[in-house]
Amino acid sequence: MKLTLFQTLEDRENPEHVESSGPFKCSRNDAWLGEGYYFWEGHIELAHFWGRNYDRYIICQADAVLDNNCWDLHNSAELRKEFVEILETLHAAGVINKADALVSQVIEFFKAKGKFNYSSIRVLGMESLSNIRANKTFIRRLKFKRNSFQYFDLIPPVQICLIKKNALSLHNFLIVYPSHYVDDIFA
Amino acid sequence: MLNWLKEYLKDTPIETVKSEWKSIQERFPKGVNAFEYIELSKVVYRYSPPPEKLPEINLSSKMTSDFSGSFFLV
Prior knowledge:
- Chain A is built from 4 helices and 9 strands.
- Chain B is mainly α.
- The C terminus of chain B is likely disordered.
């Protein structure tokens, strides 16, 4: 399955470097899926949403192909169930406690042991975008019935984290925002 | 990964595993709680209850006049 991915970066007025060297790795200690190259999947609105973390930002778009090397917690119920069992196994053994076990720690634990057998991770960043007024621009949800809780999310905040830069056959990494950095072949 | 983990826990002293986990915790001290994530995912992905717990629902009795199938933007 073909994917369109978006990475939001701080605008440091170096577009040539961004396109030639990107994507860029997130190594922050609060990266929720551990170290990797983070992308929003499919919807540029999500990348604009993340851009609010910066004074000025760049959005790069890339093409990719979803393959079996992806730890796809969004699409695979079996992998989600395995993740639950991993947590329960670690908890039952007394390795972790429920209060402070983080998603990133589970992933990094397997990586450290050389047992994370995937090149990428795909998850739904549930509640990434709270339904508050400030996020209205980025949210498209269709309610099944007026005043009901259930809705169809037209812009689900699906995230992809590449462990390796070239995972999922990533290619065509190009700036698509802001417009003054976008190459125009007709200019 | 699960099968490997079970074997690893069986073959490795628990204090060793705890020590390894602690070093990971020190590198990644902040983030999303894993147990809270799976609790939320159970709601979002609508995990099915086990068969013996499936509720009996008479769907037609639940359909009211406002069950129009119309959609409303949030």
